[in-house]
Write a structure and sequence with these properties.
alpha/beta, Rossmann fold, four-stranded antiparallel beta sheet, 33% helix, 17% strand, elongated, binds adenosine-5'-triphosphate
């Protein structure tokens, strides 16, 4: 890797308007990508990882010019993509290729494999059919197929072979960047491994940069030099893949790594998320967007309870807010019977609610105790809104007030390099603090 990055993304935003009525009045915006910056170095594999809806595909499509950015800039080989026209635009389309999850989306069933792989060559001006055929045969062999496969049709191939054909189609025009959007999600484990090996081999052989988009940390671990972790349209952590995955600094990265679905929203074991619901990107949470689901949300400064009690309180609070409490903790005045044989207003009391949310013991902090008791009593009476308000008034975290800036990830113990990427979490640095670094601060510190 040397020289300037092949692709630079700065403060990229892609918002989709939500419209209503005949006049299509804009009533809101889905902030699919909301201020993302990164570089893809020549020949490197960069992974973007995050759960469904975090904005990975929108980022990938905007990088490729398939979506118009709402704000920010994408530069390819130093040139702003939005300003490319004519031949330069054509060259960009050749040099930056997309591989999608389902190869059937990329292959026309009526075209032979040879025609499909040759098509990009024809579009980009190679008129000599004999020469095209020779290139196609060569490329098919390089992706592990045979030159004779050119005369067959896509339906004659397995899923893995079809993905090899779409890789051949991308490779045939000598790209500098391949964007691979969940390229192996539809494949079984053995084939997945073969396709990842193939992508790795062609990346090294042809010095092509690959931007991997995946929800699967194993794919990223195996294939990427660096990783950027996305949550609700933002990058929350980035760095060398080995360091980030061995020693994640952001609670969200830790949750992804231990992503065992929890049926109990108050279960904080293993750093599981507080709530299962991903917030709506048209109305993201204030401050740190991860705070309602964060196992490490920062306690209010004046609260004097143990860390584990704080976790239970925060679990209680954000589960009430998300409407994800265990049934045993919510009274329903409309209903005659409750869960576990309780009758609403009879069996359910503040004490049963507190037991259900892991806060049965009296708290040492009198203000906290009063707030938890009041909220539990409100829930026992079926008044979720009152419980929500009481908890919000008593337990406001800095994480819901301040948006974290990207700061240097803590250095690995004993590591020679001081910096191994950035993390956006108030546990590591307050917004506007001296520690804050620019959002794309990984590029020059890691390589
Ligand atoms: N054309 C669109 N119009 C409105 N909202 C959209 C559009 N495309 C994506 N979104 C929304 O933007 C958010 C990010 O979607 P995106 O597909 O980029 O996420 P993702 O991380 O790639 O998830 P997945 O793995 O499920 O594709 C989601 O809330 C999605 O519903």
């Amino acid at each position: 890797m040397s020289g300037d990055p092949i692709c630079s993304v700065r403060d990229l935003k892609k918002h989709y308007p939500i419209t209503r009525g005949l006049l299509r009045r804009e009533v809101g915006r889905v902030r699919a990508v909301d201020g993302v910056s990164f570089d893809v170095e020549r020949g490197e594999a960069l992974g973007i990882v995050g759960e469904s809806g975090s904005g990975k595909t929108t980022t990938a499509h905007t990088v490729l010019g398939l979506e118009e950015p709402t704000a920010g800039e994408v530069r390819f080989d130093g040139e702003p993509v939005s300003e490319l026209t004519g031949e330069e635009r054509d060259a960009f389309r050749r040099r930056a290729q997309l591989i999608v999850q389902d190869p059937n989306d990329a292959l026309d069933p009526r075209m032979t494999v040879g025609e499909a792989v040759a098509e990009p060559l024809r579009i980009h001006g190679l008129d000599d059919a004999e020469r095209r055929n020779a290139i196609v045969a060569d490329i098919l062999e390089r992706v592990g197929l045979s030159g004779d496969d050119a005369d067959r049709y896509p339906h004659e191939f397995s899923g893995g072979e079809k993905q090899r054909i779409s890789i051949a189609r991308a490779l045939v025009v000598s790209p500098d960047l391949i964007v691979a959007d969940e390229p192996t999600s539809a494949l079984d484990a053995r084939v997945r491994s073969e396709i990842l090996d193939l992508l790795d081999r062609i990346r090294r052989e042809f010095d092509i940069a690959v931007l991997f988009v995946s929800h699967d940390l194993d794919v990223i671990r195996r294939s990427c030099d660096r990783v950027a972790v996305m949550y609700l349209g933002e990058i929350v952590e980035r760095g060398a893949t080995d360091s980030v995955l061995a020693d994640p600094a952001h609670p969200y990265t830790r949750v992804l790594l231990s992503s065992v679905p929890s049926l109990d929203p108050t279960d904080r074991e293993l750093g599981r998320p507080l709530t299962d619901t991903v917030p709506n990107p048209s109305d993201p949470p204030s401050g740190c967007r991860f705070h309602p689901r964060c196992p490490d949300v920062i306690p209010p400064a004046d609260l004097s309870v143990s860390e584990s009690t704080w976790r239970a309180i925060a679990g209680f609070r954000f589960s009430v807010q998300a409407g994800e409490l265990p049934e045993a903790a919510v009274g329903d005045p409309e209903s005659e019977t409750g869960t576990g044989g309780d009758r609403a207003g009879e069996g359910r009391t503040a004490a049963t609610v507190r037991r259900a949310v892991g806060l049965a013991e009296e708290l040492p902090d009198p203000d906290a105790e009063a707030a938890v008791e009041d909220a539990a009593a409100a829930l026992a009476a079926g008044d979720v809104d009152a419980a929500d308000e009481t908890l919000a008034a008593a337990f406001t975290s800095v994480c819901e007030r301040e948006a974290p800036a990207a700061v240097d990830r803590p250095a690995d113990a004993g590591a020679e390099r001081v910096t191994t990427g950035t993390v956006s979490c108030l546990r590591h640095g307050r917004s506007g603090s001296a520690e804050a670094v620019r959002p794309d601060g990984d590029a020059e510190t890691e390589n």
